[in-house]
Amino acid sequence: MPEQLHARVEACYQQAESFFKCRFPRPEVNFRLRGQKAGVAHLQENLLRFNPQLYRENREHFLRQTVAHEVAHLIAHQMFGPRIRPHGEEWQLIMRGIYELPPDRCHTYEVRRRKVTRYIYRCHCVEGADFPFSTQRHNLVARGRRYFCRRCRATLVFSGQVVHG
């Protein structure tokens, strides 16, 4: 995990401790998040997960805003309990009052979609109807799993057509 991110998490905790005049247990932090989310706070586990791709592409804003956003979730949970709304007034108080940041619920980072491969399956009963399978589902078929047409209950058959996109 990059030192800058770890240092930012620590700085956010120190700010919160100074404000609330109490000590908070430090979370486990990892970079095992993929997809569209920049960060996730797991409240019960005291765990922060961050998206390494979005971090690399948006480093400055990510360190300032996203890290504080996720830390604020953990602090709000520990200060006000489990019944508060995720982006409610308690969380907003921390974002504005402690970190002096806008309480933005979502990031605006550009998220590049992965290229997806689809394997086209067909049934004899519906002319021109394609059933696109993911690589995972196609591999299950190769290992013996069968999928059935909802209309006639016949086994769907791989057409040999692969679509990349």
Compact summary:
The protein has about 160 residues and is an alpha+beta fold. The chain contains five helices and six strands. Helix 3 packs across helix 4.
Describe this protein with a few key phrases.
165 residues, alpha+beta, Zincin-like, 2 domains, three-stranded mixed sheet, three-stranded antiparallel sheet, 5 helices, 6 strands, elongated
Would you mind describing this structure in some detail?
With about 160 residues, the chain is α+β, with helices and mostly antiparallel strands. It folds into 2 domains: about 100 residues, Metalloproteases ("zincins"), catalytic domain (Zincin-like, 2-Layer Sandwich), CATH 3.30.2010; about 50 residues, no CATH class. The protein is built from 5 helices and 6 strands; from the N terminus they run αβββαααββαβ. The chain has a 3-stranded mixed beta sheet with strand order 1-3-2. α3 packs across α4. The longest helix has 22 residues. It is elongated. The two termini are about 30 Å apart. The model has no long low-confidence stretch (mean pLDDT about 95). Belongs to the SprT family. It is found in: Cytoplasm. Its cofactor is Zn(2+). It comes from Pseudomonas schmalbachii. It holds the Pfam family Zn_ribbon_SprT.
Instruction: Please give the share of residues in helix.
Output: 25-40%
Mean pLDDT: 93
Beta-sheet strand percentage? 15-25%
CATH topology of the largest domain: Zincin-like
Order of helices and strands: HEEEHHHEEHE
Number of helices: 5
* First-residue to last-residue Cα separation: 32 Å
- Number-wise, the strands total 6
Q: Mind summarizing the main beta sheet?
A: 3 strands, mixed
**Which word captures the global form?**
elongated
Whole-angstrom Rg: 23 Å
For the largest beta sheet, what order do the strands appear in spatially? 1-3-2
Which oligomeric state applies?
A: single chain
Derived structural class: alpha+beta
Number of domains: 2
Unreliable parts: none
InterPro entries: SprT-like_domain, SprT_Zn_ribbon, Uncharacterised_SprT
Family: Belongs to the SprT family.
Active site: 70
GO molecular function: metallopeptidase activity
